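Q: Okay, next protein. This is TRI36 ligase from Chaetops frenatus. I've checked the sequence twice, so it should be correct. Can you predict the 3D structure?
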Amino acid sequence: KVAIKGIERELICPACKELFTHPLILPCQHNVCHKCVKDILFAFEDSFADGGSESSNQSSPRIRISASSMDRIDRINRSGIKRNSLTPRSTLFPCPGCQRDIDLGERGINGLFRNFTLETIVERYRQAARAAIAIMCDFCKPPPQESTKSCMDCSASYCNECFKIPHPWGTVKAQHEYVGPTTNFRPKILMCPEHEIERVNMYCEICRRPVCHLCKVGGGHANHRVTTMSTAYKTLKEKLSKDIEYLISKESQVKAHITQLDLLLKETECNSERAKQEASQSFEKLYHVLEEKKSAALRAIESSKNIRLEKLQTQVEEYQGLLENNGLVGYAQEVLKETDPSCFVQTAKQLHKATESLKSFRPAAETTFEDFVVDTAKQEDILTDLSFHSNGLEIPEINEEQSRMYNKALISWERPGKTDSADTYILEYHKVNREEESVTWQTTEVCGKSKILSDLDDDSSYAFRVRGYKGSICSPWSREVIMRTPPAPVFSFLFDDKCGYNNEHLQLNARRTSVESRAGFPLLLGSERLQVGCYTTLDYIIGDTGIAKGKHFWAFHVEPYSYLMKVGVVPSNKIQKLFHNTHDVTSPRYGQNSGHDSGSEDAFFDSSQPGTLVTLGMKKFFIPATPAAPKDPASRILPLPACLGICLDCDRGRVGFYDAGRMKCLYECEVDCSGIMYPAFALMGGAAVHLEEAVRAKYREYHDDI
């Protein structure tokens, strides 16, 4: 067995660095003292109020505020709630153990479980550490005697004499549970933090926490998979025992890993020094190139300056000669006395050159040096983006087919080649807003090739890009990919296998997330009656959860081979009519050559439908024939998207049908939301529909969190 003194590191609070006192279990499965959680929440608020300065509260643990946390705290501050001196206003803070953002919800600290098991282990450790220090009786008159037992029901320690007084023989208190002297008192029954009068009796396998029956019936765990507490206790205990045995059996392997890690530490030190030298040499080369360019530019400017000064000085001397040479005027007067025309013309031409130079004065050289301005804008941009790029590290590409936007965002990427893969990746994203001039990217580091993001706003477009890192080398950024979030929060439900479910025509899978209609013998019998004008009815199925208010979105996939389907919503007061409706759109009178007005029949059937439904089938999406719809029937037929979504806004009384891949609205109409609304599906012939699965973290990510 592991010695009690060997686990001290596991008993230290990551915030105060001391032994745990009343530890609370955070949603990320780390433990923090109750007092430390309150201190961190207060410190987080103070840090935000002081601009995120870490020095704003020196007595609080050092915390790191991410950009997303600042935005969420800002929304909390704008809500106008005043701070109580005893209770922190904020419910958002970074976990001291993993630095992930923890949102405690509306209940705040009261919604966290107290880790009594860890508290007991800490108490045993304290008792082993202070074996010489006795626990005194709480009821002895001074001087108190050393206690011999502690009552778990009374939460007090007694000596032998004092224990008999409140626990007389033959009374109910005599049945109290007592143990050896201890200061660790915990309740016998663990109560639910959300329903304080209910004891926990189930274990939610999705959230990995104990819950009560009210949480399962109408709380936040209504659609979650739960198991009994005894089953969870047995399963988790067996798993923990196997993990302990595995760790003990791998002791030699762990030591080998430690030796290998020591070598890697030394190798990392050497490689970092080598990388520093290479980086210094690279920058020295840049300095040398810049110095050469600088010297050449200065020499060119100096040479041009000397040439221009020489020309200007020569011109000055010429004009000074004109002023000093007064005989030129007398010489010109003598030339005027010449009577021979040919001789006069020859001499006067020379004098005209001197006078023309005075009339059209022009400097011999320019004074500006505009041709010698160095444009370094492009070079500055290149130097700003200067990083440790490598030709061997390929640019990752975001895979839009594997990436999804649903209840959360799943961003996946891949590398084109198979060599020199990156060790880590940096994923950046920002909300696309055309009005903002500057863009602020939010950054997250990822070890794998996918990342789940849960802090995105609904009905918004986001841009994503990723780059890989291998040691100190990084690849260029990938191409930016823009994706849009659903128009409303995602609504989770399963197919209802009780209300109106026809198990002869429809087949549900075990998880109730897929339903299939098979064109079998019953449909052939129904088709036989078409000769006498009967109708072949659709098989309806609804969701097991209704919507009373708010705005909600859900998505599903329709198999390409599906012949005929209807999807939409139906109110609770018309569900019975839905399953007992004898009319349907499949009629022998619908033939093109039947001689009947199909348009009038469309209007009849649309008005007779118990809910708001649209028709799908044969890889097509049919926009209903309404006054606002196009008159041409061909323009009302659209290709069926790979994933179809429905957005129900009960407050506005609107329902929209979306291409869930692009989050583009295909058709929207009014709907009566006076009652509780249920998702509705109708199938006929060979057809199948699959509900879109929620984006959840993989087991590997859960394991890393633990």
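A: Here is a summary of the prediction. The two ends are 23 Å apart (CA to CA). The first helix runs from residue 34 to 49.
Q: Noted. On to the next one.
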